[in-house]
Amino acid sequence: MNCPCPPQRHASRTPAVGQLTIILLMKEFIMSKNRNPSKSKKKSNDDRQDNSSSLPGWPGYRTRQGRSGYDPIDSRAEAGHMAGTILQKLFTGQVRNRFVLFLLSVLGLFLITPLVVVISEARNGNLFPWNAWLFALLIAIVGTAILVNVVRNLLRIIRSQ
Prior knowledge:
mainly alpha; about 55% helix; 4 helices; single chain
């Protein structure tokens, strides 16, 4: 059978010994530690420091180009950044999500409950030791601070509508 197609040539040929030596030298030069970093490729716009996705902990850094997003250190840094942002918005009165405010108000009421129990038991004649009073008072102070911030955030939401 005669095939009208021209014969296929192999695209890859085995390199000669001299070519292998040159390839090995090139790889050694590329992988060497004595390379001058100033001659490396220029930084792209993604690597600039004014880009928020190039800062560790900021959203987008963990999943930047060429990364899978599964790095545990970057994941923890991003979670810490987000927790700090939420706390900052809480204490500066900038929380806008009503569900978050509801959860915070429940937390504040839960933290005030021990002081209410200690005071009601004291009125009935059952006195708690001083360390129970101190513990209940400290927890109630934290709960009161959370409730005050919830009220401030709610007032800010009501005024903006």
